[in-house]
Amino acid sequence: MFIRGKEPTGFKDAVWGNDIVDLRNIEIKAVDTVNTDYGDINVYCYKGGDFNIAEISVEEIYMYFWRNKFYLVGGYLKDLNLEEAKKILVKEFGEGEDTESGFRLEGEITLLELKEDNEGLWFQYGSKTTIEQQEALQNVEKEEQEENPDKSIEEEIKAFSRIDWGQKKEVFSGLTETEIPKIFPSMKGYEKKGEIFKIGNTIFSRKAYMFVNDELFGIWCREAGSANWEKLQDIFTDIFGEIESGDQNNLWWTYKGTIVELSYLSEGNYTQLTLFSKKMVMENTEKKEAMATGRPSGDIIICPYCGDYAEYEKERNQGTAIDNISTGIIGGLLTRNFWGGLMAANMAAGYNNRRIKIYRCQRCGNAIEVPI
């Protein structure tokens, strides 16, 4: 237990349970969002200067918010080992207990801990009630998966069919552009910092959203190693049925409006999972195949302005008869000679009478002229 009067109830002017919008007097900067079984945790770095507690100096202080409420503060200690830090904390706050990774001191409203990891000695204290709620929710999630793991995973996978394909990019917050494998020229990838993709206990540590013409086209996930590849093959086959197409390291299934692609890339040793809108794949594939096969109508080209597909609109001459006459008149005036005007008109006619095709980009609206 804490020594009477020594149990902290928060950090600086913030107390446990404060809403993030109420912390106007504390300078903080958002640095991360951590996805957990019990919801997202928003992490902020305290920018108000160094922080010392008792005789302990903390390198950088991080404040943690769950359900938008402040509940935890922590950071790595400077120049102290576990025994030194524990001795100082016991003297300042009271007797606690040793744990497998460090030290723990439990009060009525606050839980204080020291933990050793690969980065150093981590110090934190936070709302005991909130931490216990999180642990309880995590245990419930774990028990449900242990009792019926297949059902839990099946429900998660069947949710693939309920993805709202075609959503506009503007409805997604916190996206930053990132490099992804491109299937179509206008495709762009975006990700949210720290976001993962989880199916049961299978985790993809990188997740990106794929947009075509700023509409949600797919979700792309990647994880190092082959473990996810080996786990998900049988699970997907059980739920979706027999593999529709693919080769030894690339498998495809279709589930209602979603195409599911599972791949193992041996060269980089990672597993890749991609979910696509079936409708949008078909629409864009038709355009791509038309270009590759040189369809007789020749009705599609790549737009040089935005990289999307431009469709055939019409065919016409480069110029008009009026352009030829105007050029002849100007040529005659400049040379003060009938023959000079005639020559200028003939040269203009050679250019203006050429046939061109006009293509119109559906994305940026630009017209592209292509000589025939």
Describe the structure.
It is a single chain. With 372 residues, the protein is of the alpha+beta class. The chain folds into three domains: 10-134, no CATH class; 155-283, no CATH class; 295-371, no CATH class. Helix content is 27%, strand content 37%. It has seven helices and 26 strands. It has helices at 82-93, 128-147, 149-158, 227-240, 278-293, 321-335, 338-352, and strands at residues 10-11, 14-15, 28-34, 41-46, 51-53, 56-58, 62-66, 69-76, 97-98, 102-106, 110-117, 120-127, 176-178, 187-191, 197-199, 202-204, 206-212, 215-224, 245-247, 250-255, 258-265, 270-277, 300-302, 309-317, 355-361, 367-371. The chain has an eight-stranded antiparallel β-sheet with strand order 3-4-7-8-12-11-10-9. An eight-stranded antiparallel β-sheet has the order 13-14-17-18-22-21-20-19. Helix 2 packs across helix 3 and helix 6 runs antiparallel to helix 7. The longest helix is centred in the middle third of the chain and has 20 residues, at 128-147. The termini are far apart. 24% of the residues are buried.
Any key phrases for this structure?
alpha+beta; 37% strand; 372 residues; eight-stranded antiparallel β-sheet
Fraction of helical residues: 25-40%
Number of helices: 7
The largest sheet has its strands arranged as 3-4-7-8-12-11-10-9
Measured by DSSP, the beta-strand proportion falls in: 35-45%
Report the sheet with the most strands, covering strand number, pairing sense and barrel closure.
8 strands, antiparallel
User: Low-confidence segments, ≥5 residues, pLDDT <50?
Assistant: 291-298
Which whole number gives the mean pLDDT? 78
Identify the overall geometry. Answer: elongated
Radius of gyration: 32 Å
Q: In the residues, how many domains can be counted?
A: 3
Helix-and-strand structural type: alpha+beta
Distance between the termini: 87 Å
* Strand elements, count: 26
